[in-house]
Amino acid sequence: MERALRKYLAGGVFENVAPKSSRNLSAVRGRNNRSTELCLRLALVRARLRGWKLHAHGLPGNPDFVFLRRRLAVFVDGCFWHGCPDCGHVPKTNTSFWRAKIRRNIQRDRKSNEELRKRNFRVARLWEHELQSDVRKCVMRISAMLRQKRKKRSLAIL
Length: 158
Known about the structure:
Number of strands: 4
Oligomer: single chain
Number of domains: 1
Helix content: 40-55%
Strand order of the largest sheet: 1-2-3-4
């Protein structure tokens, strides 16, 4: 990973991450995180929204939830890791590394969105703080996107 980040750093050099910090950050779960993914999963079940798959492989960016028949990919983005404009931040230690890492994540997210749209998927990206503050609003947004797609299909049939 460090080699891939070097091209984003000024001079290609950054300070090494302390072993304790590295252990702590490697313990952060990318899947089944209680504050984000499990929260949305439970909310989708409660709202009786069906037809979704978790972590459908083979799609760009590996969306957290995919409604294949309705061509909707849903990502649950952590505010820190994906550079949330509202509450994301860059740590004060090893700043150049983290700034490059977060910038690279944002670029990868944009590329995933483009690739999914080329495959006729619509993309919903939900921030961690949105789920924590009002999960019902997030479910309503997904539900509205699903209804919107259904309307377009019925118009194509007529």
